[in-house]
């Protein structure tokens, strides 16, 4: 057997090393004012649910003033709340209520780009070429006889050129939608602005930031051509001149100094895509950010050997810089894993098993709202509701289906308690058959996905071997994984479609589905995971 050690950093930073963090997609979590759109009042009303679920922190997606070209990731004002979601007082009250319940609050910060309605960009358009206002963004002259061609061949993540031409003939860079112009991080004023934004929210009591496109901001000198098409598919797999440039790390080091200047262990979490695990680990060096999302784990197909490989690599590379690993199965940008794992009963079985696997691994885990209910991707939304700008690149890549609001109650018709009584529509329509997936229905069912998550999170919190620490692989049959945490906990997962017999590692604590024990052996159900009080070995 092989032991993988995770070395804590020298500084006493503990809560974030093994925290379970719940992602709230604010538009779709709970509607407090009856307009069919989730808001901060709705989140406040459901904090008790999150506390009872057993998570440690909540990550809120952007709630800042925005034209909503990319559902809030096009920010017009970084120091306020969009009226769609409430007011600044609602954010302050939410932070205070969460803290009273022992929950930490992490908010999004979006530093790669602003909205085109941000005062800075509006001023840049008015000021014209060569002005100080334009220096805050990336404006360039075009190519061709009269500048009619984009400055280079960069493509938008959402499809099409990453450049838009303005009336005076210059072009501006937007690696996402045209309504999201990229900032020029070579300009000192941009650095000063975001340092002030961080301090504004830290002063209001937030416990950290999830940094959107943390691999962005810095572009290669001279903005060289990529020389290839399909650049969105290259991100995270190959080196590109607009992402994961070495200069981003100085930004993150400066932000770490700001975070460390506040009491209470405030953290930074990188949404970062990098071509190698080693480059991803650069974002969580001791003087940079605290965590980086593990998208390699999220993207791993349902195969025991592949999962073992990505777990080994994740733990190894994080340990090189003294950071914890992070584990995530879904988020607001990818299809829900019940569907990715095959959908239907098979997908649900695998999702139950994956939950126990993820929560048993060393480090920190992220739960995307609704995965604790076993929600599938909604694949048949009517065309008039599909507004995700990513669909411009590829209709199948649209993210609307993972953002359908949560069902809370089991009575009546959709939207099942997402909105106050008397409101019958949500911003995205909810399937009628989600009644049985609602929070209310699942709380009545001891075998439900929600009951499994609550039990697993309670055990994780109580068990001394779970969370931060070491992982030791145990021998197990082909198609299965088995590992020990410390001396008294073991996890075994069968990722095959067949029953598999193996030696029981101890006494059963929790199962995602149907093991059969016989003496010293156990028969593991297909696509299932089990937790055990391990025998000392």
UniProtKB/TrEMBL annotation:
InterPro entries: GH, GH13_cat_dom, O16G_dom_2
Record GO terms (molecular function): hydrolase activity
Alphabetized UniProt keyword annotations: Hydrolase
Pfam families found in the cross-reference section: Alpha-amylase
Chain ranges of the Glycosyl hydrolase family 13 catalytic domain: 23-403
Gene3D superfamilies cross-referenced by the UniProt entry: Glycosidases (3.20.20.80), Oligo-1,6-glucosidase, Domain 2 (3.90.400.10)
Sequence similarity: Belongs to the glycosyl hydrolase 13 family.
Name the record gives this protein: Glycoside hydrolase family 13 protein
